[in-house]
Amino acid sequence: MTQSVVVQVGQCGNQVGCRFWDLALREHSHVNKKGLYDEALSSFFRNAVLVDMEEGVVNEILQGPLREVFDSTQLLTDVSGSGNNWAVGHMTYGSAYREQIVEKLRRAAEHCDCLQCFFLIHSMGGGTGSGLGTRVLSLLEEEFPEVCRIVTSIYPSAEDDVITSPYNSVLAMRELTEHADCVLPVENQSLVDIVSKIQHMSHGAKPGQVIRRDSAIISGRGGLSAAEKPFDAMNNIVANLLLSITSSARFEGSLNMDLNEIAMNLVPFPRLHYLVPSLTPLYTLADVSVPTRRLDQMFSDAFSKDHQLIRADPKRSLYLACALMVRGNVQVSDLRRNIERLRPSLPFVSWNQEGWKTGLCSVPPVGHSHSLLALANNTCVKPTFVELRERFTKLYRKKAHLHHYLHVEGMEQSCFSEAIASLGSLIEEYHHLDATKGTLMPDAPRLSISR
């Protein structure tokens, strides 16, 4: 049995991670009625590293019902935080805590018989998640160059209350492009839209009915957590993404997908490793007049904008590859039938028409008969990056708040120009691919993009 190590960095990373562990334990207790610590549990649990430069969230975890899950030697906190400054997280704390972080990563890796993957969870807008999170990512590459690095990155919305979030995000983007094998971008605004839609549907239900306790946005009474907090609904959606992607490693399945295969099969060009996640069911609530989704409908939903965790339209852009990770009682023939049905409406690059990767896990999420996670390597991520570049440029043109960064030892203005240049060339690479839509693409440009 292979194992993975989950690394949670910053307030958001630890809150999402906390929801993941809570929901994962609920899943395992649902399946493993005798409460035995089996192989499926040991493939993930106790293989975690929690890092935050404030104590609040980690202390909350240690004092809460999840405290037994974590080894306290695998936690690293400070008291002052990074002040929403990428440079403080990346340079100051990254240097001060380098040895301790490496030691904790090595210790977590030593617990594994066959280490398959590192999952890093962080946000892009704050200081610790973006700065220290990407420093940890580069340390993972240094220390474990052969082990796959899959990053779940939460991107800030345009109305983010952290005024420097465009700086932090663009500085972090360069690190993600250089050091990650796969990035699953999740936009805060998409999560807000999904939760709002679910709550709106819930309010339209009959009086006295509430959102189902085991829906995708609520941890449920079966979980270990106490009352819901404001961001729990959004964090639970991201946790459900992580539950789906790790289900093959945690449970049996007729067509289990090796996590290394995600990067191997979905990333034809090393830098273009941003995979658009979409989840279904998201809107199936017991109290709302939405019928249980038929299997074929679930596949259609996974390719609709409403179910994506970033605001984009993949059907109008170009697919490089796509993975479908299905949970529940689903047959390989169901997968094949739906891929054939959907294929004509999905614009794939001419040289990878067969670019589908599939996985089947027999254990469905609690409360559902089946679920589907689609991961699309698609040029539709480009508008998200263009919008981020515009927000960065707006601040940078005025040199607003720049002095806060340049006061940090090791931080120079060239870091900003290199980061925006890296983002610009990434956007350009997606743009070139988009331009080939509908034409036969010769081999030469493919090679030049992969440099």
UniProtKB/TrEMBL annotation:
Entry-linked PANTHER family: TUBULIN
Protein family according to the UniProt entry: Belongs to the tubulin family.
Domain Tubulin/FtsZ 2-layer sandwich stretches: 255-390
Species this chain originates from: Seriola dumerili (Greater amberjack)
Full protein name: Tubulin epsilon 1
Protein keywords: Cytoplasm, Cytoskeleton, GTP-binding, Microtubule, Nucleotide-binding
GO BP term (any one): microtubule-based process
A Pfam family that the UniProt record links to this protein: Tubulin
Main location: cytoplasm
Residue ranges annotated for the Tubulin/FtsZ GTPase domain, each copy included: 33-253
